[in-house]
Write a structure and sequence with these properties.
By secondary structure, the chain is an alpha/beta fold. The chain has 12 helices and 11 strands.
Amino acid sequence: MYSKKLLGITLATTMVFGLASNAAISAEAFPSRPVKFVVQFSPGGATDTLARMIADKLTAPLGVPVLVENKPGAGGIIALDTAVRAGDGGHTLTLISGSALMTNEFLHKKLPYDRERDLSMVYQVVEAPLALVVVPSVTANTAPELLDYVSANKGKISYGSYGIGSYPHLMGSHMSQEQDADMTHIPYKGESDVMLGLLRGEIQMQYSSALLAKPHIESGKIKAIGVSSRKRMPALPEVPTLMEQGLEDETYQISGWLGFVTSSNAPQEAVDRMAKEIHAVMQLPEVQKRASEMGYVPITNSSPDVFNAVVKTETPIWKRLIEQSGSAM
């Protein structure tokens, strides 16, 4: 009897210490395999370049390879669903744009994932403000002048974007409705195609990345009216924000951004470790310099909690813009 009791105590003790040991190993083991970054855009673009730069800097501190996989299409839905379905304990993260993360649930009646239930925010890496640019034939040179111009030329102005429900589409739609301008929206396949349409005179206005717009602004082929952000862009420091010019509507103050998310099933230890390492990478001068050259504004003080707060604040704005534009499918 004594032996049975002793055996029971020994087994119970072994199980307790075994579980504790496994928990400790689990917490310390991340990452236990290569980490994968899923990018919502095709290879070669600014987002892809940014992801590969961060991945390269993370390989040494993580002690495992950090791979990049491109999953373009469906407005970021494919890329997000890849992270949700990975089931690898936080080893797969998606680098996603803010608009893709927050607008799809209002654009589509059915998604393969639920953002609030299935995704965890890890780290918001850069802001991606857009420059509002026009062709030289548009006589406006400031934001207030442009609002007056589109109102005075009702039904005569066209603006471009890279798709229904995209940031440039929703911003243009908002301006059109607020000014009763009846502007025409022309969707293109990609941002470079929108810029070509602007240069050819097919459209008169667009919201563009600094990387794409800057050379044409400097050559005088297009004019910069303002920047959609609360702060000026390092890549276009001479261009004032729309807010500076008196456009205080919150729509003109939000900017695009990129951030890493992962499956909500990922252990908190994995989320915290990735956030910590990405935070360290974003402090590096060479990373900040390269990101700024691409037209981004590096974010050096993000965290899972801070990132969550940003999403919570901005989601209602995007919902209102989609409802206003009538873009829901």
